[in-house]
Structure formats: C-alpha cells, structure tokens
Amino acid sequence: MKLTFTFLTLIICLPLFSQTEGQSFCSEFKNEDYFPLTVEKKKILWLDSYYFEEIVGTKKIKNKEYIEYAQNWKAGNTESLLLREENGVIYQYEKCCDSETIRFDSKFEKGKSWQTADKKSKYTIESFKGKLKTPYCDYKDLLVIKGEFTNITYMFYYKKGYGYIGTTDDKNNLISCVSPEWNKK
To answer: Where does the signal sequence lie (predicted)?
Structure first.
C-alpha cells in the first residue's frame, strides 16, 4: 500500500514540477537583473553546435574577484569567461588587454554605446522591450544589445533573472539560444 501511494504521488507530482520548470524558463523574473551572475549552468545552442556554460569557481586578478565560467563546447574545447559585478556594472576581464570591458551597466539607457577594452568592438543598447522567438519560448520585454564586430553585427537578447537568451544576425536570423533540453545533442 505504501509503495502504491508513493508511486501515485510521484506520477502526480512530476508533471507539475516539469510545468513549473518550463514556465520559469520562459517567463520573466520581474525584480531581477538582466545579467545575474548566479545562474550556475546553461545549455546554449550556437549555429550547428552547442556548449554548456557553468560556474567553476572564482579567480582574483588585480585585487578584483571574478566569477569564472567554463564554456564546454560540443567539439571538446573549453573557453573561460571571467565576470564580476560592482555597483550595478558587470565587467568582463579581457586577457588580451589585461583590462576590463563593461558588459552591462544597470544605469545604461536606450542608445548608450561603449567599446570593448581592445577597441575592436562596439556595443549599443537597442531596447528594453525586445522580443525573440526561439524553438522553446516566445520572449518579450528583453534587453537587446547590438554588438558590432569586425565583419558582422549581432543582436544579443537578455531576460531579467536569467541573462543571455539568444542571438540574431544582421538579417534577424536566430543563430543562438538557450535550451532547456540538457540531454539532446
């Protein structure tokens, strides 16, 4: 009898848990940041590949403590990303220049532009009301940052409480998005 009760409880609760998880993946967290540094792991699809981004620890550089993320790609290579927050500003440590690039400042308004530490790329706040349709969700009220690089321009989309959601190219084609499907290749 106890086994039957446990089994029935499990069958009833699992779909409820899955629905809640799916809803939180697609819905906005109203009182959160666009660049939370607390999301421990994400699966990010990029063109015909993917990578897992996860927090692996902290690293101190020039008396500043960064959260270290490992980006483990499908092909087996790993890239490192170092981010920190100070007074509402998210900084990325740039190994190339031994300095920081601002990733986002909570005080930035639409139209604000800034350059990377190496002066090779430019970012501009395009919107705080962006929309993005992915295979998993129809997002709205997203932060949209235009990234202008040497040979291409991307639009990066960020959701409050979750951070990075996806990227479109200069023709508005979806080329990257986060995925809730951890086990699919």
So the answer is: 1-18
